[in-house]
Design goal:
Blueprint (H helix, E strand, L loop, with lengths): L10 H5 L2 E4 L4 E8 L2 E4 L2 E8 L2 E4 L4 E13 L2 E3 L2 E9 L4 E3 L2 E2 L3 E3 L4 E3 L2 E2 L2 H13 L4 H13 L2
Parallel strand pairs: 1-3, 2-4, 3-5, 4-6, 5-6, 6-7, 6-8, 7-9, 8-10, 8-11, 9-12, 10-13
Length: 150
């Protein structure tokens, strides 16, 4: 709590940045944050952070969201890209597409859109694996035709 010089330490501020957009704040534009962000107001545009984005119950976001982790109980209309995970809590509403390796939704929350959890990478890999496998039945048929010719 107290530093070596007798000055009071602010534990959260020393570890990472914390930004808060309170209820009643309306913002339009593109915002970039470091660390954890909590939004309880309205935001229209784009929001980017590699940290945690917390969207409060009364918050409304319209636009593109890029974050490390999204935890929302508010209303979001737009596409979400999360590096770690997306959590929609009750009574949250999310309308848009999600791209994240992890997704969870609490009972009572609403989601309308598509969710991409990286399955396309696995499908592409599976297709490449199939291309490397030879069709033995087709190969056997060719061998038998050759064996019948004098």
């Amino acid at each position: 709590m107290w530093g070596l010089n007798g000055k009071k330490k602010n534990g959260l501020a020393d570890e990472e940045n914390f930004t808060f957009l309170g209820k009643g704040v309306d913002f339009k534009g593109v915002v970039n944050f470091d660390g954890t962000v909590r939004i309880d107001g309205r935001l229209e545009g784009e929001i980017h952070t590699k940290g945690i984005l917390i969207v409060g119950e009364h918050a409304v976001i319209k636009g593109l969201v890029t974050t490390g982790t999204l935890i929302t109980s508010g209303k979001i209309q737009g596409n979400i890209t999360a590096l770690e995970k997306v959590q929609i809590l009750k009574p949250g509403i999310l309308i848009g597409d999600i791209h994240s390796p992890s997704f969870s939704m609490e009972e009572g929350a609403h989601f309308h859109g598509m969710c991409d959890m990286g399955a396309s990478k696995g499908v592409d890999q599976e297709r490449q694996d199939r291309e490397n496998v030879h069709d033995l039945a087709a190969h056997r048929g060719k061998v038998r035709v050759q064996d019948l010719q004098p």
